[in-house]
Amino acid sequence: MPLLGNLPAFRRDPLAFFAHLRDDFGDVVRWSLGSRRLTLLSHPEHIAELFGGSQEQFRPVDISWVFRQLVGDSVILSQGADWRRKRDLVQPAVRPRQVRGYAATMVDCAMDAARGWADRQRIDVEQEMNLLTQRIVVRTLFGNDLGDRARAVADAMEVAALELGAELRGIGMLLPDWARTPARRRVLAAVETIDAEVGRLIRARQAAECGTGDGADALGMLLAARDEEGNRLTARQVRDEAVTLWGAGHETTSVGLTWCWYLLSAAPEVRDRLTAELDSVLGGRPPTFDDYDRLVWTRQVVKETLRLYPPVWVVVPRITQGGATLGGEPIPDGTTLCCSPWSTHRDPRWFPDPDAFRPERWDADRKDAASEQAWFPFGGGARTCLGARFALVEMALVIATLAQRFHLDIDPGVVGTAPGLQLRPATAMRATLRDRELCLSGN
User: Fold this and answer.
1) Global pTM?
2) How many domains does the chain divide into?
3) Does a structural domain hold residue 1?
4) Where are the alpha helices (DSSP H) in 319-387?
5) Residue 193 contacts by C-beta under 8 Å, 6 or more apart in sequence?
6) Beta partners for 33?
7) Among 30, 145, 235, 255, which is disulfide-ready with 422 (CB 3.0 to 4.6 Å)?
């Protein structure tokens, strides 16, 4: 359409729009959001080239005012030498050894949640997972320093996430940065709350000289990190990275867990195999980090959930420069490339019967290179989400802890999707809890 381009169709249903481009126009399709010209990549080989290309040739581009206000100049949007420096400083906070230390906190929080549940109790699944992952991220990222203020930060993050989703699907994306709509004023108020609380924690840690590198939480690791020249992140940079990690460890994981319970409830045979594995591997005890590799089916359930409902449904676009190529063909400088895990994950060329929930796709003796390359819920290449390992371990251990005790029977019916900052359910997801011990005893 004149001036708007493909915005009306994208706004109505971005997931269906991407699938339409893929199915009807091919693997490389030009489209537009107002004056912004983009190219959608759907073939795994092209996407792998995009992820694996040099940072100089495929530069991340920011197309959202709200997103920039939220994450600032964090590693997710940084470029060149600045990106490499920040990546090296942030990685220690989420490396495997550190995630091992976080695992016990993940399980403890999940056990606390289970102790608050009862047989036949009715719950809002998304709300419960939100509260649980919030507790986990507060303890692993900030220690227990937030206290009652955790709710204020979570509410502010929720406002920003909702407004980002609205901006991505509306004319807000086309507005100049200086425009101050009611929605943008709500975002600025939310960011002010986030800045105040995270800034308070940073100043308290700095005053107490807690950033010595031996802290148990990610904030301590960020404050302690030094680059090759001995320089640390500034307070503002620590804030940006902490907020980014909060979003990855809380919002993204809670959405993934919510969809996982939805899929398990609708597939009793998959759930039965899950509980059988938990009984065999754990024998009634809480899981530990060392159990992660042994919980093979649990991890496949997580992987298949992230295929069907990737919380991050569109990857940060990249703009080409310096003679970039794809598939051996030159790409003009200034081309904005994007890709969607939702679209590629549900392509029947890579995943037969793509809408079916089949964790056995990921059996070691069944998966093939095409399907593995076509799965990218955390992005890929050097810019793979730094919190990917954290999220995978968190999802598996939370599911293992709760599924030992309870089945979540979600009300029947198809739940739609609401693409925003994350791919959330469009309506409340209500479930009835069933205590497994009572079920086994016939009560």
Assistant:
1) 0.91
2) 1
3) no
4) 341-345, 369-373
5) 152, 153, 155, 156
6) 5, 36
7) 255
